[in-house]
Specification:
The protein is about 50% helix and about 10% strand. With about 350 residues, the chain is α/β, with parallel strands linked by helices. The chain has an eight-stranded mixed beta sheet, sandwiched between helices. β4, α5 and β5 form a beta-alpha-beta unit. α9 packs parallel to α12 and α9 packs parallel to α13. The N and C termini lie far apart (about 55 Å).
Amino acid sequence: MHHNGYVSEASAVQPARRVAVLGAGSWGTTFAKILADGGSDVAIWARRPELAREISQSKRNSDYLPGINLPRGLWSSSQLPEVLEGAEQVYFSVPSQSLRENLRIVKDLLPPDALIISLMKGVEKGTGARMSEVMRQELKLDGDRVAVVSGPNLALEIAKEQPTAAVVSSDSLETATLVAMTATNPYFRSFVNTDVIGTEFGGILKNLIAVAIGIVDGVGYGENTKASIITRGLAEMTDFAVAYGGRAETLAGLAGLGDLIATCESSLSRNNTAGRLLGQGYSYSEVIKQMNQTAEGLSSVAPVLELALAKGVEMPIVSQVAEVLAGTLNPRDIAPHLTTDELPQGE
């Protein structure tokens, strides 16, 4: 602290915080923009050199964010050492099934004290591991070096600077707070909690409910049906997360209900689109062929139901989605909010 009282000027001359984002898809690029607009010096790693050049020179990512101008405080390279050099925080936005191999590649390049943050919403096939668990295993880190970001975050809307909020979660409140301050700007506000499990499962489970919403939409059912599936779906998400050590209030917040509403309302949502095609009568294999990008929800149905079974959690909506995927349930008969053996109490 200076004794002359000019604290704000003194802090203004500090160099910008150096951060790295690995993955130049729509969400990685958008999050890099959020960080740059919050005052950080941001480097994005793009696998393809020509994409790195476009981001650095033209300040555009026309493949993933058409029409969006990227800020000046942001640059890109396909060379990992350049991007990671001196980074205080490293954000991962790669496909969830490739996270483990990506971590093995970057392990020795990561600055020793860097915080590691997941922007991904998926579970690893085969292991059922959440992304933060994969990070901790591969990098041999304590939970206080790792954080996750989740919330109602449709990339293109945020890239257009439409105001929204997210949750940053870490075992360490100090880590979560530092990341949240870095990921806050005039149109993007980050809140904090220490419920990593609930925050991460919220982002995974809402995709499954979004597929159900898509299915009933494709069948032609209206707002009442969708509202009841969102409401009962939230109850299923909450039961599951709590069984695995999450907190119910996290699922009632931005990372649960908030993300669920955004995903279910959005025609941009891949999970929603996949469900709609199923509801229109296409088979699972036809849907996969028609979708040019993966819908994370479709690949999470089986591992989530296995995890639910292990804890004795009933998930009628997710189970009915699984039946539609298997072709054993006619999408017209999907009424998961009505399936129950006994009359539910209170709701």
